[in-house]
Amino acid sequence: MAVSWTDERIATLKKMWEGGSTASQIADELGGVSRNAVIGKAHRLGLKSRPSPVKANDKPAKKKAAAKPAAKKAAPAKKAAPTTKQPPKPDPVPAPAPVPTPAPITAKPTEGGQSQPIPNRAPDLPKIVSYGPGGFLRQGPGDQQAPIPPAPPRRRVPAKPSPEIADKTTLLDLNDRICRWPMGHPGEPDFHFCGTKVNPGFPYCVEHCGRAYQAQLPRGARRPPPPLPFGGPRVR
DNA sequence: CCCTGATTCGC
DNA sequence: GCGAATCAGG
Predict the structure, then answer these.
(1) A64 φ, ψ to 5°?
(2) Is the CB atom of residue A72 positioned under 7 angstroms from any atom of strand C?
(3) C1' nearest to CA of A3: which nucleotide?
(4) pLDDT per residue of chain A (236 residues) written in tens, 0 to 9
(5) Which nucleotides on chain C have any atom < 7 A from a protein Cβ?
(6) DSSP string, A67-92
(7) A63 contact to strand C (CB, 7 A limit)
(8) A33 touches strand C (CB under 7 A)
């Protein structure tokens, strides 16, 4: 084993996984491990699911059970006994329910922002959004979630030497109340997050909300795309 | 083809 | 427990 799953690495894995990073990105960030390793570990940790392209369907069928025995390093021998699924316990699937019907609130009139329906992430829930005073999109207090942190750049092999990130806000310090805006680049010794108090109801502080949620300007009045974290040139 | 995550199974 | 190989959907 080249690199073992230390507590920190596991914590990072969790954070990123839950944060919406892809397995590849997490693997890059951790360094020294493959995407598969990350996924495998994630599953072993109990994490799983999340937008996966190959998961939505529900026709497990039974064909794949015999579709792999070949092509492997050694004699495939054979699959584990087809232990049929759980025999007893029909389990009356409890009605999940829970789509927490978000109250059709029209944004927090903190400063008298007008509300306007804007496409937001959340397939089922009504999109409650409005423009904030700074011109950034404002979400309904009820449906904010998934930080979807900006994706880190791709990197292969470089293992993070050690997380000596002094008192800066590290990945592990993130919580619901501090700004998650990334400062610097992942992998750098001084990579950290903004860390200041968030704009209530948002994943970022007021300043970064303005950066994250940009209002759409009228056609023709568009300004050149401002730099975003990770995707482009350094932002700091 | 690329990407994704899921799964299997030898180690 | 780990992760390469493999599968499978987008």
Answers:
(1) -60, -20
(2) yes
(3) C2
(4) 557 888 878 887 887 787 777 888 888 877 788 999 999 999 888 877 776 666 554 444 334 433 444 444 433 433 333 444 344 444 444 444 444 444 444 444 444 444 444 344 444 444 434 444 444 444 444 444 445 455 555 555 555 544 444 556 666 555 666 777 766 666 556 667 776 777 676 667 766 666 666 556 556 555 544 444 554 444 44
(5) 1-10
(6) SSSSSSSS----PSP---S--S----
(7) yes
(8) yes
Beta strand A192-193 pairing with A182-183: antiparallel
Q: Are A212 and A201 in contact (CB under 8 A)?
A: no
Task: Mark out the alpha helices in chain A (DSSP H runs).
Answer: 7-19, 23-30, 35-44, 206-212
CA A168, CA A179: separation in Å to the nearest integer?
Answer: 12
Token pair belonging to A108: 């927090």
CA quadruple A12, A13, A18, A21: dihedral sign: positive
Q: Using the structure, give the distance in angstroms from the CA atom of A100 to the C1' atom of B1, rounded to a whole number.
A: 41
Pick from A189, A192, A183: nearest CA to A230: A183
